[in-house]
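Q: What structure does this chain adopt?
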Amino acid sequence: MATISRTAAKLFYYARNAARDAAPQAMFRSRLAVRLEQARLSGETVRKRLNYYNKLTTSFVPSPAAIPAGKVPFSASMYYYDLKEFARYFDPGLRIDLEFGDVVGVPEIPRIVKDRPIVEGNENGVLMKLNKFRHFHMPPDSQPFAAKRSMAVWRGHFNNPIRMRFMEAVGSLPIVDAGSPKPDAPDQYRKPFLSIDEQRRYRYIVSLEGNDVATNLKWIMSSNSLCLMPPPTYETWFEEARIEPNVHYVPLAPDFSDLADKVAYFEKHPAEAQRITAAANAYCRQFGNERDEQAISLLVLYKYFVLSGQIEPDPEVWRYIAG
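A:
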């Protein structure tokens, strides 16, 4: 259930992006050199993150099915707007292989994607910050850890077997408020909907992957509640592979047999819980630097177009990218 402020933010998101589409696109292309120079001066953090999202190091040729940058499909409109925000700075004839939606495998050729599996050799999945209105919603949390309910909470849809295994393992524990508000959930596991704010009133929030990444991970880690989850198997712009167990979150066993013990431990060691939530909060803050986020996004596409042989690299910008 969307709040009034969240609904207003969505309307603003669409209005702003529709205005960008309506503006003369040549205006954006004329600014590319300036934007690239600004990005080049961003520093080492931006360079490292750029090369994490776009791990490609050798040249390649776009597939025959590649789409011109000026004709990105509008279906899945938030994906469209998030990609076009930066693709519009480039020649509309440049071709992109892309895959919108949840990507569960490593692409056979380099593609722009929202997510990729956390495995060796996943460089063909070139990450962009797509569907960011949904996935990067990290509202502030004013309630301290100690003031929250001393229970674990989870809400979600049973779109991954791990979620059913979780319910079977811990659904009857008195310290856990877990279930699904979806009408197709089994009766014994159906629970009322809880908003983000309502879930953050609990000290412990469980994050479980769904079709790919867990959508709730970002707002849990930006809150004062402790994130409990199995190690992630997919990553997005949030760089889930770089999130460290017992530093940014509390790891859970695959069968969830340790959840009760983990809650009991942190109930006795609240300072340690707050150390982890503070580190998680700090991790999240890097994604709030909008200047860096835009610089990285532009450079991810720039590197893609250079390595695909479609544009000649600017020597200074390319030297920065290559380090």
